[in-house]
């Protein structure tokens, strides 16, 4: 089984116990942030910050309803998600909040969606974003934090370590304060 097939399988959530899902999210985040990039044309974008939304863990009722297969792109009012397989009872995805390419950061889910999903109207460039296996030279331990601007205090946002996130000036959702402490 290829790495992409393993990733797709991990996006088919069979666990329904919300208390067990956090460890599943952590495993998916480690895999995405360490082993995958988004290819658009000849550019490779590393995921910097992601947030998990899943209706079975969502007490704020903010997860968009959807009927999707595992691993689709789902565009919505707040960005773009990599989807979980959905059914009538469960649905959700992983919001791609920030990305990086060649040391240049694109911070924020709307900016990220705009960058990744701007296409040639004639279809000549064939630069539809797709996931690609590409291990980091050195593995990282993703940092878990609460989701931005959400009242729930679940650690469903994951990002790269602070010292690797070198461009963030003006980004209000940056997860650390000026002293280097995680914002809660």
List the helices and strands and how they pair.
Elements: H1 3-10, H2 18-35, E1 36-40, E2 43-54, E3 73-76, E4 79-83, E5 92-101, E6 104-107, H3 109-116, E7 130-133, E8 143-145, E9 157-159
Antiparallel strand pairs: 1-2, 1-7, 2-5, 2-9, 3-4, 4-5, 5-6, 8-9
- Indicate the radius of gyration in whole angstroms: 16 Å
| Assembly category | single chain
Number of contiguous helices = 3
Mean pLDDT: 90
What is the CATH-assigned architecture? Roll
Could you tell me the strand content as a percent range? Answer: 25-35%
When the domains are counted, the total is: 1
- The residue fraction in helices comes out at 10-25%
Order of helices and strands: HHEEEEEEHEEE
- The backbone outline, from C-alpha atoms, is globular
Are there runs of 5+ residues with pLDDT below 50, and where? none
At CATH level 3, the topology is 3-methyladenine DNA Glycosylase, Chain A
**Major sheet characteristics:** 9 strands, antiparallel
CATH class category: Alpha Beta
Kindly state the number of beta strands.
9
Distance between the termini: 39 Å
Structural class: alpha+beta
Write structural notes for this entry:
The structure is a single chain. The chain has helices at 3-10, 18-35, 109-116; strands at residues 36-40, 43-54, 73-76, 79-83, 92-101, 104-107, 130-133, 143-145, 157-159. It contains three helices and nine strands; from the N terminus they run ααββββββαβββ. Strand 4 and strand 5 (92-101) form a beta hairpin. Strands 1, 2, 3, 4, 5, 6, 7, 8 and 9 form a nine-stranded antiparallel sheet that branches. Helix content is 18%, strand content 27%. It has a single domain (3-164), classed as Roll (3-methyladenine DNA Glycosylase, Chain A), CATH 3.10.300. By secondary structure, the chain is an alpha+beta fold.
């Amino acid at each position: 089984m290829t790495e992409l097939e393993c990733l797709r399988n991990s996006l088919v959530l069979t666990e329904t116990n919300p208390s067990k899902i956090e460890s599943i999210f952590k495993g998916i985040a480690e895999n995405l942030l360490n082993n995958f990039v988004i290819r658009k044309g000849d550019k490779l974008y590393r995921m910097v910050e992601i947030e998990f939304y899943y209706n079975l863990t969502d007490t704020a009722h903010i997860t968009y309803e959807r009927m999707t297969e595992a691993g689709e792109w789902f565009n919505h009012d707040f960005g773009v998600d990599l989807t979980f397989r959905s059914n009538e009872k469960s649905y959700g995805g992983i919001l791609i909040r920030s990305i990086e390419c060649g040391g240049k950061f694109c911070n924020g889910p709307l900016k990220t969606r705009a960058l990744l999903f701007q296409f040639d109207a004639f279809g000549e460039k064939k630069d539809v974003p797709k996931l690609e296996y590409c291990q980091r030279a050195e593995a990282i331990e993703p940092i878990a934090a609460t989701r931005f601007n959400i009242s729930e205090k679940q650690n469903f946002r994951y990002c790269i370590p602070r010292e690797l996130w070198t461009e963030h000036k003006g980004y209000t959702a940056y997860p650390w304060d000026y002293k280097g402490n995680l914002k809660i």
